[in-house]
User: Fold these one by one.
Assistant:
Number 1:
Amino acid sequence: QISPISQPYWQGQRLLISAGPTFEDLDPVRFLGNRSSGKMGFAIAEQAQKMGAKVTLIAGPVTLATPFNVHRIDVRSAQQMFAAVQAHYAQNAVFISAAAVADFALAQSSQHKIKKQPGQDGLTLQLVKNPDIVAWVAAQSDKPFVVGFAAETQNVLEYARAKLHAKKLDMICANQVGENLGFEREQNQLTLLSAQHEKILPTSTKSEQAQQLLAFIAEQQTSIKA
Ligand code: CTP
Ligand code: CA
């Protein structure tokens, strides 16, 4: 079922992937995080490597083994992920932003453990917006082919299409999360959207979704260049 175009396209191609959550530290023992496991991004890295791609994987804090022959760079915060992406995007033909980047970070993280005070009955955290990493890459003049993800619990395709346009992406993978799909799950269901095309993938394992996604990118890229 995988397009025969995809193998030659990915052979020797440089692919940058971000994966996993980011953790935003409050203090040395606490952080704000999210439920991304990193499995989708790691599955894409593994499958792309098998198709012959040279893969760099920028990973947030996850408990996954590095796929064979994949260059992995570990980061923790959105700012660290941004710095790693800025250092690497230009050497790659394709950037897939599969990471669940925290939208906000602490305005200030404390050097020491925050202690609650006697009688304190609440705590207000001040957050500041993180950079939009995928939108930043898509705005560069030497940008690679840029693929985003949109994990949504409702109005999935509508929100995904809005993100495709707002962030000026080449493609977005709409991802229904919740119930038995998406975060912390083996099975996934993606719909692939570009300006011209829409492809609904059947529910399958993240490895199978990754193969289909890589084949779709190869088709898009091959038709652009043809
Ligand atoms: N993304 C990013 N940097 C951010 C936030 C998101 O690069 N600071 C990327 C994600 O990796 C994903 C895409 O943008 O590829 C969409 O992320 P998502 O969280 O769905 O969209 P947001 O623009 O953050 O909108 P919201 O969370 O409000 O739905
Ligand atoms: Ca977000």
Note: The longest helix spans residues 206-225.
Number 2:
Amino acid sequence: EESPVSADQPRILLMGRRRSGKSSIQKVVFHKMSPNETLFLESTNKICKDDISSSSFINFQIWDFPGQVDFCDPTFDSEMIFNGTGALIFVIDAQDDYMEALEKLQVTVSRAYKVKPDINFEVFIHKVDGLSDDHKIETQRDIHQRANDDLADASLEKVHLSFYLTSIYDHSIFEAFSKVVQKLIPQLPTLENLLNIFISHSGIEKAFLFDVVSKIYIATDSSPVDMQCYELCCDMIDVVIDVSCIYGLLDDGSGCAYDKESLAIIKLNNTTVLYLKQVTKFLALVCILREESFERKGLIEYNFHCFRNAIHEVFEVAAANQSGVLKGSDS
Ligand code: GDP
């Protein structure tokens, strides 16, 4: 009884120089690796498909630049690669000299733009944990300026680059990824609208729709996002999945740590309640509310039921539009 979300998964390409942090980003965001463990990662030196599409809402590939990539090389099928891509994330190591990275950014963007002009170009100014606040702003300004000058020199001033300051040592990498993914979801306004309706009728302060595996939020209601609330919700997902893995699986290790029955309520000692519930195979709703509001639990459950049905409908319609046929809801 799962929605056929997979037909519509946003595809993302991660590129950048060697050692810029691509594998670390992949491991931390999609494989729960702790940031310190990335110190011992083997560097990637080829195109690496990380098939997380069976466990995540997001379809994601890494593409490394081991030194000189030759776009004229006939074995290098950039048409095929860029054509299927919704967003191209280019990672720049902010702790290193970034001149060469900027050159590669320009070459890559020119090439990708020729193949598919509507790719979203996203630049992660990465490893900013080592930089002071002033230095961060200055680096972002400098990279922004140079990257746009380079594009103008190549007569590509039409191309829009978005910039994010990121680090795997805090939640900035998840926040940046969330924004990148949200731009790729055509149903975003509908999802936001449904979240707004749900929270205003249920006395809920804040609600996020999360991709459970990556802890990227694919939508939230229109009230501003407070980083602490987001982190709290991320931590809740970790706790719920960890507890399910330990106690929720069958004796033979089979079963699933996250399924239709997944539901968790955590009461904090400051009269705040955290509420998590499964929405689709990949997505969970995580809400923050006051204890008083939680007294009307029946109402929240009823509203959630309506919300969940609406979300399934949104994705079923999307899948049907894409394939031209109405898929059964079991795909
Ligand atoms: P790749 O070759 O682009 O895949 O780069 P890696 O993922 O192998 O990362 C190279 C090094 O950068 C590793 O030692 C990581 O621990 C380190 N690294 C990655 N992300 C960050 C970050 O956000 N901050 C800091 N300080 N180091 C990072």
Note: The CA atoms of residues 198 and 303 lie 6 Å apart.
